[in-house]
Design goal:
The chain has 687 residues and is of the alpha+beta class. It folds into 5 domains: 2-196 and 254-279, Rossmann fold, CATH 3.40.50; 283-381, Beta Barrel (Elongation Factor Tu (Ef-tu), domain 3), CATH 2.40.30.10; 399-470, Alpha-Beta Plaits (2-Layer Sandwich); 475-587, Ribosomal Protein S5, domain 2 (2-Layer Sandwich); 591-682, 2-Layer Sandwich (Alpha-Beta Plaits), CATH 3.30.70.240. The protein has 17 helices and 34 strands. The strands form 9 sheets. Strands 2-3-1-4-5-11-6 form a 7-stranded mixed beta sheet, with helices on both faces. Strands 26, 31, 32, 33 and 34 form a 5-stranded antiparallel beta sheet that branches. Strands 7-8-9-10 form a 4-stranded antiparallel beta sheet, with no helix packed on it. The longest helix has 18 residues, at 569-586. The termini are far apart. The relative contact order is 0.09.
Length: 687
Amino acid sequence: MSEALKSQRTYALVGHGGCGKTSVAEMILFNAGVTNRLGKIEEGTTTLDTEPEEIKRRGSIQPGFANFKWKKNDHFLIDTPGDFNFNGDLPYTLKAADGVVFIIDAVDGVKPLSRRAWKAVERAALPTIIFITKMDRDRADFDAALNSINTSLGVRPVLLQYPIGNQENFRGIVDILAMQAWYFDEDGSVSKGEIPGDIVEEVEILRETMIENIAESDEDLMEKYLEEGELSNEEINSGLLNGIKNREIFPVCIGSGIENKGANLLLDVIQQYLPSPLEHPDWEGQNGESRASDPEAPVACFVFKTIADPFAGQLSICRVLSGTIKGDLPLVNPSKDGKERLGNIMFMQGKEQIPAKGELGPGAIITLSKLKDTSSGDTLCDEKNPFVLEKPSLAPQLITFALSPAEKGDEDKVFQAIQKLLTEDINLTLARDEESGDILLSGMGQNHIEVSVEKAKRRYKVDIILKTPKVPYRETIKGTAEVQGRYKKQSGGRGQFGDCWIKIEPLPKGEGYEFVDAIVGGVIPRQYIPAVDKGIKEAAGRGFLAGAPIIDFKVTLYDGSYHSVDSSEMAFKVAGSMAFKKACESAKVTLLEPLMTVTVEVPDQFMGDIIGDLSSRRGKVLGSDSSGGVTEIRAHVPMSEVLQYAPDLRSMTGGQGTFTMEFSHYEECPSQIAEKVIEEHNKAKED
């Protein structure tokens, strides 16, 4: 098996939305003999975009998987979504790969969204080949695209291929290392030919530059190159391999996915220069242990994606980390303390599941069906040699919408339908607002939420209405008060009696809630004091001004009285709640709004517009940095002003801007905003 694994390749296609990844994947599958026709995104005929929402939107919303042979060697390909709404789990997907083919559009070059995807690849530290596609398109500019790799991604590209012709005249590729020209035939195959005379000199210069770049990545090679002025082909190849593996060299290939130009040459470069699973560094475990990517090691598999199939049920997509697996193998899930039997092992080929034959080792991307208690992020392993992979961190959700059913009384149906989506989309979170009863769905962006709701409607036949995103306001106190809470009820038989005196005062921002028991002399029996605390906390949770929880305050319980027969925990809980409400009337309660740290990345020409827009949203700009033609702007902005920022930013920048957002802190709400929020809350209560 080790010999076969040396030539096995497992890689992900990565890039920004619309750069042409899926078209490149279709080209690869067609040339590898997986499909007999070239799928087109515009026609909805691609192999890897299988969800109705993907076909409708003409873009991937979840990873696509394929496995095939290239020159008798196994290849496992993962096509990742480029839209930031749908690639929040990219760190999990990259954990399953040994290398990356990073796709760049020859028309647009490196865009801000490309930088975001590149950062994920950098964090994963994966060897990377760069493929410039759409070389035959109008406005394709090879030189500009190549320069943008250096200026925007901050890496030095090493050119392995050079175009013959440009745009509609793009008719071939020069292999710079071999100094060999290849011309495209109508069926996508290539035939050898001479390098055109008008570019021979330029290609020779590029070859010298390439060799210099390879030599610079290795001290021994550099020393020999400086002494002798040349390197052997073996030394060049060895230096290239090591440089790619160490992420010091980023080779560049070219072609066109839509027109099926360059697939064979790209696949040869992938086969020759991306690492095998045996070369993967040891996997790091949650508890500091490590596991070698070795077929002789104990079995471990990482579940990096879960898919709900209408016919096969729940499918778990796994990367074999170590060991050798076969069908019906018993494994354990240490995170869930459960046992799983693998059953039949399959490969995903688009939406098809193909039975896997024989034993499989590290690097294999396999599909398991109907696992009992395993979800994305879990590790399955040998019971006698437990191992839990250290999971990569995921980006936080950026937006929350409230969901409601079209038909009253269907709230539970809506909740259950969305809940089923959570198993396959780890970037969604679902909750209920205890105050309003609203169902809250959080995700990576407005498109993410809308597509998830579409999917729930289609699969589970439930009509869902999206409502305005909710802002989690808070309240706090600015003054102090000392009050009595006295609850007395007599309605025949045993009554209810609870009496307490409390002092309420503000705490510094972020301190939360503090309860101090200052009762002496047993004026309130010990067993009733926790009930007072509970009553205060529950009342604080319901708010005073706008139904928002009250935070950052201290309560001291210092006096009270009880009745030997009528007092109870319930009575003191009510008394505590009454005391807190009374204290709020004189403790100057004020409304707080959440401020977000918003980081926006836009081309330099949009910087002024974006800063002006953030200021108009009551934002405070913290600073900006410009690099490679892209400006990063950081600001504190009230959440209420950026709930639907994604479509606004897209409109302002023509789709070239990206942003991230995370909670920063709470600040006092301006009076005019607070009055409006309180008025809306009171109106909702009346309704």
